[in-house]
Amino acid sequence: METNRYYHQFLDSFEDGPSPQRDVTEAEMFSFLALTLQLGHTVQDRLEDYWTKMEQLCIPFYGHTLARARYCHILCFVHFKDNNGNGVDRTDDRLWKIRDLFEIIRTNFSKFYNPSEHLASDEVIVKFRGRVLFKQYIPKKRKRFSIKMFKLCDSTGYIYDMNVYLGKDRQRAAQHLTATQGTVTNLTRGVEGFGHKLYMDNFFSSPDLFDDLAQKKISCETT
User: pLDDT tens digit string along 113-163?
Assistant: First the structure.
């Protein structure tokens, strides 16, 4: 619905724009998401190469699932929130455009999986060159322009919970903890009282944090 809304807003911005395409259906959106996930398993040099008919590169799955032009159309206009921000306080949440989708994914990660005894909390750098206010520039990292995320994973590598770093002013920590340490307590709120063992590096650790987690029956080790 939001993808179609954004496309029609785009068409309305032209007095004599391109010929309108049909609205994206639910089935097409599922196909688009499936292909987007599959892109990472069959890496090609260019997006167009996934639909190429060259014998040495051809992968029929993509063309049979969704036409290239249709995939590119959805990719160009995919949206998850009204661009006008109706009913949303943009100043309160920098992730407002995908907040609903992000919370659905995050909630289901923890809802349908019981983590193992050993857990790890750490930051993850995701390469990104788009325009968002919370994009980080970290010159010492290979991915200098990136989005920083904090994740809680178990020993199998499964992501049990995650948060996007939106800036220090967006962190909500207890008075006795820093914003970074508050991130750890926020990520572990779903595993309190089960006796898990949590591993983290010195960037997150502090005696106050260890005491706070010990009260929730979570033992800690630093790496």
Answer: 999 999 999 999 888 888 888 888 888 777 788 999 999 999 999 999 999
In this structure, the answer to whether residues 64 and 132 fall within a common structural domain is: no
State how beta strands 136-137 and 145-154 pair: antiparallel
> What are the φ and ψ backbone dihedral angles of 142, each rounded to 5 degrees?
-65, -40
**DSSP string for 81-113:** S-TT-TT--TTT-TTTTTHHHHHHHHHHHHHT-
Q: Give me Rg for the CA atoms of the chain.
A: 21
Q: Are 213 and 185 in contact (CB under 8 A)?
A: yes
* 69 and 8 both lie in a single domain: yes
The residue segments making up the domain with residue 66 are 2-77
- pTM of the predicted model as reported, rounded to 2 decimal places: 0.79
Domain boundary among 32, 60, 77: 77
Q: Are strands 197-200 and 219-222 parallel, antiparallel or unpaired?
A: parallel
Q: According to the model, what pLDDT value does residue 17 have?
A: 72
